[in-house]
Amino acid sequence: MRVPRVAQYRGFWFASLAAEGPSLEEFLGPMTTSFDDMVDRSPSGTLEVAGGFSKHVYRGNWKLVLENHNDTLHPRFVHASSVAAAREQSDAVPTDGAGAVQIRQMRQNGAPAQVWEELGIWTSEWGHSFMGDYHTDKAAVALAEDDPVQVEYRRALAARVGEARAAEILAVSRFNTVVYPNLSFMSRFRQLRIIVPLAVDRTMLVTHTFRMPGAPERMFHDSIAFANVVNGTGSLVLTDDLETYERVQRGLESQGGEWVDAARGLGADAPDPSGMLRGATGTSEVHIRNQFAAWARWMTGAA
Ligand SMILES: [Fe+2]
Prior knowledge:
Layout: E1 5-9, E2 12-16, H1 24-28, H2 32-40, E3 48-58, H3 62-69, H4 75-78, H5 80-89, H6 100-108, H7 113-118, E4 120-124, E5 128-132, H8 148-161, H9 163-170, E6 174-179, E7 183-186, E8 191-199, E9 202-211, H10 217-230, H11 238-253, E10 270-271, E11 277-278, H12 286-300
Antiparallel strand pairs: 1-2, 3-9, 4-5, 4-11, 5-6, 6-7, 7-8, 8-9, 10-11
The structure holds fe (ii) ion (FE2).
The site of fe (ii) ion has 6 residues, from helix 4.
């Protein structure tokens, strides 16, 4: 079919099946800053879709993955087995060599509760949200500032934008961004997932990785390695989430309970100076409530 409207932001193209409605930038709102983060990080100011793509399907409703991507409470528990496996592999946080990125990401999932409480969950109109202040603790998945690859990368970025702007760009510490209801991306490691509902209880994710032209090639390899942890079906991490979606779906289908509790942080979430509603703590379920508010709005046609 011909779609009535297409528009792009920073080279990311969107199509709308509705002839009328908010413009793309109105719709994305503060989520544009996550696209900025992804593109601005490239020393060439451009990104390239690279490394192929992957698809996976889970037996659950499409909402489950969107609820999960900014859920900071689950990693320590749902991913406990891979946290333990990563700790067995290495006492220190590895920076280089085979599996370093995977091990870092798996260890990060086991970060102390306080780390998760202190990061930020921000939400905006239309059900969107992002997780910020993520890469600030020492177990973080990102390379240390003095890592030779990071030094070379920073130099390449500064050559284009200047030292001051490079510092500003690299200070953004963001993890997943959810553009409700069908997109989730992660700027630091340049992952993007499109969520495709196949049936009420069956969902496909199409996942892409990007290369930053002009950045050290090792960073692209790290992105691919990262993709294998967070998007790969052979992953020791993703498989935990897929299993959980399936069990949640089965639980909900059983009609065993009338309500699902998503009240964590309720009443204490507060407007941010940016105009977004920020979770009371990093583990607030504000993003889930925000998604269902948007869902109700779509379904009822409320303005
Ligand atoms: Fe997870």
